[in-house]
Design brief:
Helix content is 14%, strand content 42%. By secondary structure, the protein is mainly beta. The N terminus and C terminus are likely disordered.
């Protein structure tokens, strides 16, 4: 990364994430499954709307389960607590999906999993419901973005106990590449969509100090695409110097 690019990125991030984090940026093109561990998903290289990336869908076994399991593809060897996650994503309901399918697509962070194939997973995540972005029903539009913390804080509990606090409207479309950026620092996190803040969470449920992996995330009945993942962790020393 050149000094010029680093300076531009640092200026864009402002005070939310210290400048010292920029030099640690790691880029994953997601043109293959290298460096990924798959959990209840199938991932394969694909060109979508002229851009190379990964196509991610649920395994047949996961799709048949009565209770939806976590469906993830996580980056091996990456321990993330605070910093920035950027990616391009696209999602749409799969052919024959249930009526409530919305093309759920997003990014999980601070992922911890006991066993890399069948163990219990815990994570925070931001995701999109792309078919809601331009729905004719305003209530559906208001549910275009979502924050969750699995397993204790699924969307259903958050919506019931704190309506509208952890979801919001944003102009998105199904089957369209959308740039997202997630900024995490302690108990604060923000989801940016197309460079604009769409959802702000000031009480991240995993707490201020949780660490874990970063993962591509999908929901039930979804065909998703991911590309150009960039992760910029903030070092503990940088965080300590910027309380």
């Amino acid at each position: 990364m050149t000094r010029f690019v680093a300076a531009v990125l640092a200026g864009a991030l402002g005070a939310f994430v210290p400048d010292s984090a920029v030099a640690q940026a790691k880029r994953y093109s997601l043109e293959s499954v290298d460096n990924l561990r798959l959990h209840n998903v199938i991932a394969e290289p694909a060109t979508f709307q002229g851009k190379r990336g990964l196509r991610v869908t649920a395994t047949p076994e996961a799709a048949r389960q009565e209770v939806e399991p976590p469906m993830l593809a996580w980056i091996e060897g990456l321990d993330f607590s605070n910093g920035i996650i950027e990616a391009e994503v696209a999602g749409a309901p799969a052919s024959g999906a249930f009526a409530g399918a919305r093309g759920f697509v997003g990014i999980a962070f601070r992922l911890q999993i006991d066993n890399k194939t069948e163990g219990k997973a815990t994570y925070d995540a931001f995701y999109l419901r792309p078919t809601n972005g331009r729905a004719e029903d305003q209530e559906r539009r208001n549910h275009a973005t979502q924050y969750i913390s699995y397993p204790d804080w699924p969307w259903s509990r958050l919506r019931q106990e704190t309506p509208s606090k952890y979801e919001s409207y944003v102009d998105v479309e199904a089957d369209r590449w959308t740039k997202i950026r997630i900024e995490v620092r302690g108990e604060r996190a923000r989801l940016y969509v197309q460079q604009q803040p769409a959802l702000i969470v000031n009480d991240v449920k995993s707490g201020a100090n949780r660490k874990g992996a970063v993962a591509l995330w999908i929901g039930a009945g979804t065909v998703a695409h991911f590309r150009n993942l960039i992760v910029t962790p903030e070092s503990d020393s940088a965080r300590a110097s910027h309380p």
